[in-house]
Design brief:
Radius of gyration: 24 Å
Largest sheet: 5 strands, mixed
Order of helices and strands: HHHHHHHHHHHHHHHHEEEEEEEE
CATH superfamily of the largest domain: ARM repeat domains
Shape: globular
Number of domains: 2
Length: 369
């Protein structure tokens, strides 16, 4: 039996090679940049750190290599950013602003707006939001009219209540709707990059305040194509849960007038690293066209007979009256840093417009050690 494919660790993006690249950029940016101090400090203790711990560690190493005058140091940081080769290298550089520039709000805000163009300053803005949410949100609202889509995205992404890997902001935890004016300003943004961030931000809010999200989105113009795209993606968690109001907002009634003619998961036994295929045959039971949101919920086996469920998208489409449709999707069953698989039976449920309409299963086996 072949071994499951292994994948590089995320933290290795900021390994010794990245340190050397940042060091080269610093040396090229200014003769006063202390390359040796940066490299020695950055590599010391780097190995056991996670990706975000490495971001902070490298930012502090930069501090040892840059002039003590913050304005002068920022000038060098601005010159370093365009020379970097990976967005996470830039994230480590923007973190210098977060950790060492909080006492200079104006310079730091201007720096983050510039640096985000080369990677992202979404993590670096969080300490400013935590320390002074009103002032920082006001500045981010100004960014919604910026010519650069990266800066407009920073306004939305940096203020997300549940930003992945981002530090928590107490004010946003207490009231995840504080950034609503930013989202309203960006609801018809021309950039898909920005619109995706707005949708993700709204989806975050919906996990804590679903009624607020539904009420707020009903005030938006769902007929505008760009806004409609945001609404649909902002509601995805509620749609996966079968929320009737969310389904109605995208034109899908709760439940569907269809018959499931086949729901199959193959093969019946799969090894870790292998793949399953899900096949669905649906038949309309009405002469009218209907919007169908088809998902599947996989119940992962866990230790001691427990399970953990996760909903996956299959397809959203319009099924013509009296028509049939066949849907296929494949999924590789492999370990991630956030999910370890256990052997055993894995139940799979078919969800159509929020309702369970069929079930199937497969057994997972682990390779021998």
């Amino acid at each position: 039996m072949s071994e499951p494919k292994t994948y590089p660790l995320m933290k290795d993006i900021l390994g010794p090679e990245a340190v050397a690249i940042i060091a080269d950029a610093g040396e090229a940016a200014a003769s006063v940049f202390d390359r040796a101090a940066f490299v020695d400090t950055a590599l010391a203790g780097l190995e056991p750190l996670s990706i975000m711990e490495r971001v902070r560690h490298i930012a502090d190493a930069l501090h040892t290599a840059l002039p003590t005058d913050y304005a002068t140091a920022l000038g060098i940081v601005h010159a370093i950013a365009p020379r970097l080769t990976h967005s996470f290298q830039t994230i480590a550089v923007t973190e210098f602003v977060a950790r060492h520039g909080r006492q200079d709000f104006e310079r730091s805000m201007a720096a983050l707006a510039n640096l985000t163009r080369f990677g992202s300053a979404e993590f670096a803005i969080r300490p400013f939001l935590a320390a002074d949410p009103e002032r920082t949100l006001a500045r981010m609202l100004c960014w919604t009219t910026h010519d650069d889509a990266h800066v407009r995205r920073l306004a939305s992404e940096g203020s997300r209540p549940r930003l992945p890997w981002g530090s928590r902001v107490p004010a946003l935890k207490a009231d995840p709707t504080l950034a609503a004016p930013i989202l309203d300003a960006l609801r018809d943004d021309p950039s898909p990059y920005v619109r995706k961030s707005v949708a993700n931000h709204l989806n975050d809010i919906g996990k804590d305040r679903p009624d607020w999200l539904l009420d707020h989105l009903q005030q938006w113009d769902g007929g505008a194509p760009r806004t409609a795209w945001i609404i649909r993606h902002a509601l995805r968690t509620l749609i996966k849960k079968g929320d009737p109001r969310a389904l109605a907002m995208i034109g899908a009634g709760h439940g569907a007038n269809v018959r499931v003619e086949r729901f199959a998961v193959t093969p019946p036994v799969v090894s870790l690293g292998g793949a399953i295929t899900i096949t669905v045959d649906l038949a309309s039971l009405t002469e009218a066209s209907q919007c169908l949101v088809v998902d599947y919920r996989l119940h992962y086996a866990r230790a001691e007979g427990k399970t953990a469920a996760k909903v996956f998208k299959l397809k959203t489409f319009d099924l013509a009256g009296s028509a049939t449709a066949t849907l296929h999707i494949g999924q590789t069953i492999r370990d991630f840093s956030t999910r370890r698989h256990h052997p055993g039976r894995h139940e799979v449920e078919l969800l159509v417009n929020g309702r369970v309409m069929a079930t199937a299963a497969f057994d997972l086996i682990l390779p021998e050690a």
